[in-house]
Design goal:
Blueprint lengths: L4 E2 H30 L4 H34 L5 E2 L2 H5 L4 H8 L15
Antiparallel strand pairs: 1-2
Helix pairs in contact: 1-2, 1-4
Length: 115
């Protein structure tokens, strides 16, 4: 883990995480769409409400990523800080690695992790 990073880089990494979240939400949205198309009216009704919530989450993650990109552009490039403590408190190890710059975002593939 890097001892320090620029505020701009950290902000850009957060924006990238939000885009990764958007991609995962799109996958979830596609799965819920399949449920809606299944023909089971009770299941489809619940799925429509869930789809609406997923759509709001997708739009929110896109808006937040755009905001973080704009904030990053406005930050001085030489402002650094230590993110070690903040990253040590992050419960999602893979995300912490990506935010630290030691791991790259990757496309979701293979079988999903179940809880």
């Amino acid at each position: 883990m890097a001892a320090s990073t620029t505020a701009r880089t950290a902000t850009q990494r957060v924006a990238e995480e939000l885009r990764l979240m958007r991609d995962r939400l799109h996958s979830l949205e596609d799965g819920l769409s399949d449920i809606c198309a299944s023909g089971d009216k009770a299941l489809a009704g619940n799925a429509v409400a869930a789809l609406q919530q997923v759509d709001i989450l997708v739009q929110s993650s896109v808006a937040l990523a755009s905001f973080m990109d704009a904030v990053a552009e406005d930050m001085p490039e030489d402002r650094t800080f230590s993110a070690i403590e903040a990253l040590s408190k992050m419960p999602l190890r893979d995300m912490a690695l990506r935010l630290s710059g030691t791991s790259q975002p990757h496309a979701q593939g293979g079988s999903p992790e179940l809880f």
